[in-house]
Specification:
Length: 165
């Protein structure tokens, strides 16, 4: 869903029944990669910083939803998903009905009929095994939530690559 005040809402509204194409980008793991993690830096120095990432691009027809029933169902599912790990999960019925209705007037639901999916990733796969190992070690040494996620993604990518070869 989007805030009704978001300028994208006007751009996504169809005119005269026209189909509105859209692109939604879901960003996954991402992390800055310093060239100091590459052993090849010491060998030849031909290295530069980069950014590793995983993303999925979804293309399709966009539909906006102003219907209160659609919004309430969407928000209830979304809330239930994100509140599930809480000791005392909040639920839609915890808030006063008039308050929920007022809040829902400020948003517009969005759905996309998927016509194409494209996964994109850059996980240092263009580097040597030694450089990849250096990046994985460097990410492990950072020990942040983002570095751990990228480290796990790179380890999984390397396992798949070695299984195929």
């Amino acid at each position: 869903h989007l805030s009704r005040a978001n300028p994208h809402v006007d751009r996504l509204r169809p005119t005269a029944g026209c189909r509105v194409p859209g692109l939604v980008v879901f960003s996954g793991a991402e992390h800055y990669i310093t060239p100091t993690w590459y052993p090849s830096k010491q060998e030849h120095g031909r290295v530069v910083p980069t950014w590793n990432y995983i993303a999925v691009h979804v293309q399709g027809a966009v539909t906006l939803h102003d219907d209160t029933g659609w919004l309430e169902s969407h928000l209830s599912q979304l809330t239930d998903t994100h509140e599930a790990a809480q000791a005392h999960p909040w639920a839609m019925h915890d808030a006063p009905r008039d308050y929920l209705d007022a809040q829902m007037k400020g948003i517009v639901g969005v759905s996309v009929r998927i016509e194409a999916l494209e996964g994109k990733y850059k996980l240092s796969q263009n580097r040597s095994d030694a450089d990849i190992a250096g990046v994985v070690h460097g990410l492990a040494s950072r020990d942040t939530p983002a570095s751990r996620v990228m480290e796990d993604a790179m380890r999984a990518s390397e396992r798949r690559r070695h299984e195929r070869s």
